[in-house]
Design goal:
The structure is a single chain. By secondary structure, the protein is an alpha/beta fold. The protein has one domain: Nucleotidyltransferase, domain 5 (2-Layer Sandwich). The chain is 34% helix and 29% strand. It contains ten helices and 16 strands. Helix 1 (53-67) crosses helix 3, helix 5 crosses helix 6 and helix 5 (218-228) packs antiparallel against helix 7. It is globular and about 60 Å long.
Length: 351
Amino acid sequence: MFGRRKGLVGLDIGSSAVKAVELASAGKSYRVVAYASEAMAPDSIVDGAIIDGAGVADTIRRVFDRLGTKTKDVAASLAGNAVIVKKISLPQMTEAELAESIKWEAEQYIPFDIQDVHLDHQVVPGGEAAAPNSMDVLLVAAKKEKIADYTGVIAQAGRVPVVVDVDAFAIQNAFEANYDADPGTVTALMNMGASAININIVSGPATIFTRDVPIGGNAYTEAIQREFNLTFDRAEQVKRGAGAGDERADEIEAVLRAVSDNVLLEIQRTFDFYRSTAASDRLDRVMLCGGGARVRGFADALADRFGLPVEPLDPFRRIAFDAPAFGVDAVETAPVAVVAVGLALRRAGDR
């Protein structure tokens, strides 16, 4: 699950769209050699659960038709309440000893039947362990049923699922490839998708805390849709400031602010929980990405609420991306491509 040799296509299967990225490397540099995105039919994926498997598989096929690559191997990712990520402190032991004991340790922290999940783990380098002879371990459990659903639609689309990652770690991959991971800076990586917000708080290269918040950009669209009796597509345009037509700007701003208040409350709860459970309550900045990051005024509201600098997380800051060659706008594409770029950096067998 924390999984460079043979190249993969990073495939971000979201509730609003499927995005795919393929990278080529030259030394430590990367460039995008293929990019494509296709909108997902409404309600095909709800709260991270695949409802219309045939429809999702068809969307993936269309993405690969546009991608034009011969690469069949895919790295995908999961999020939501079927995935548990927890940092635990254990006595110092060898990797072999850890591999033997991790299942028993996991039973104490995972609220699922251990037989129903796939487990993975990784020792956190430089972690702030509870005692001198302890070590921090990042434990991940994902329901087998959900993994099977996602790998199944990928296979149905004629591709080979080689790596199944977690959204939060894919975002971290993209961050580390494009920014210097300063161990003295604690950063909240925040990906605001259509139906959820992935939050991964990192210090240097180490994950400190992760949580998925079950609210996203669709909350804004649906509120505008209800308030002004618009179609979903039109409400999406209004949300992003593409003209409000006959709707009054002050009324639209009021709707956006009301939804932002609810979103910020959930983020506040996440930050409060982080501060109550982590060894340090430090938080220096927020790096924001995802389609919801383009909601008018949200980044400013986030900065005002928490008194933190909020910066866009650009997955193409150090990765060459010739957007016009793929028929897209770089500014519009960057926020929504982060997970796919992070997945494309994976290689089979990585840890």
